[in-house]
Amino acid sequence: MLLNILFVVIGIALVLWGADRLTDGAVAVAEKMKMPQIVIGLTVVAMGTSMPEFSVSLISSLKGTTDLAVGNIVGSNIFNALLIVGVSALVAPMIIQETTVRKDIPFALVSSTLLLIMCLDGNISRLDAGVLFVMFLIFMYMTLKGAKKQGAEQEAAVETGGKKEMATWLSVVWILVGLICLIGGSNLFVEGATAVATNLGVSEAVIGLTIVAGGTSLPELATSVVSARKGNSGIAIGNALGSNVFNILAILGVTGMITPMTLKGISSFDLSMLVISIILVWLFSFTKYKIERWEGAVLTAVFVGYIYILL
Fold this sequence. Notes:
- The chain is mainly α.
- The protein has helices at 2-32, 37-62, 66-91, 98-118, 126-153, 168-200, 204-216, 218-229, 233-258, 268-286, 293-310; strands at 94-95, 123-124, 261-262, 290-291.
């Protein structure tokens, strides 16, 4: 039992450190390409900080613990929309761009609703996964197409805070080192978490929705809160929303195409909560294209209530 807990702790540490290195390298490359803030948040940072979910879900699914794989994604997305956006708004009110309200949040809502519908029969088939992945390609096309227009109108690269730009070779090294740590750490994490859950008699679904989801969402939380505090709210909201879209469409899409998933412990309540969380963020974003501190407090309170009901 102690060894398994040690595996979980070491796994989380490796995953978080690896995600940090991967994101640093990826953002450095994006900065050289002069990508707008919101686009970096929706693509590079979102993918980098979603790598823990991807590696954990893929390895969980390959090992037959599909409830852990899906629970990780559903729990992470609820964590992103309610706690990460909520805490980020508490740190500093978040300015939401019109394109985010009109395109990015609706896309996250459609993705969540589609997942809810697909899970009604208790399975995510290869066909379901294929549909999700095609939608991800469409989302990426729309995002990158919009980036060209934004780039022509404004120069919104991430602030470097006076630091020297990272060398290209170092960026590549950090990306590779980050990926290695993510894969190795995820393996340890899944092994340890599954064994601990079995020993305690807790279902894989609950472990996935809480401990695993929280652990793999720490990179998003740290990235968004720091971005909000520095005034880069485009990165903060883009990271949370981009991660949600990436988690459902890309991660479950790729994972499901490799190995179909059967759901046992993920309930309609959990999937409905996923949809409700995005709707709340969307509603709050409509108010002057800004999420105020009190709205952040509401999102955080809803998350705490959900975890209480779950446990």
